[in-house]
Amino acid sequence: MEAKLKEYRALRRRKELIENAKNKIEQSKNKFVDFITPNFFKEMEKAKEDEVLLIENEEPTASEYPLHQLEGSTDLASETSEVEETLAPGSQESWRYFIIKWTIYTIIWLTLYAFFLKIQFGAVFFVFSVLIGIYLNTRTGPKRKGEVSAYSVFNKDCASIDGTLKAEQLMKEMMYGSAVR
What we know:
Elements: H1 2-36, H2 39-57, H3 67-71, H4 82-86, H5 95-118, H6 122-136, H7 167-176
Helix pairs in contact: 5-6
């Protein structure tokens, strides 16, 4: 029993040490980013947070909704758009982090490019960089739930996305004018 208790305490201590180390690294990263980034990004983020707080604090009134929505048993808080569901809070990078990250990537790439120019493989490095960039900018993972494809044949019931020019729509517009939907 003592051995199990000792093992449990050691495991719990190890987890606490790891958690403390993660917190210290996160704090160090935030201090570094705050030191590097200009103040106008901080002001932009603060203004954005204030705007979000104002929007969240506003309560909708009954006059803003049609009667048929109020009579039904639908909960207004549970109605969310597909965009809100796909973007989880905190999943977007902050502007500061984005700028720091791409600045570091650019510096590393330029350093490597200068090195490869020195050993006369600059063109090869550039071509491979372009090919890697093309690959990384294409989505290779599965699509999100509820996301529609730009190609209607892959969508449920072959539904097309908004703004798609269909043959039927083109024919109607040519025969009856552009005002017909």
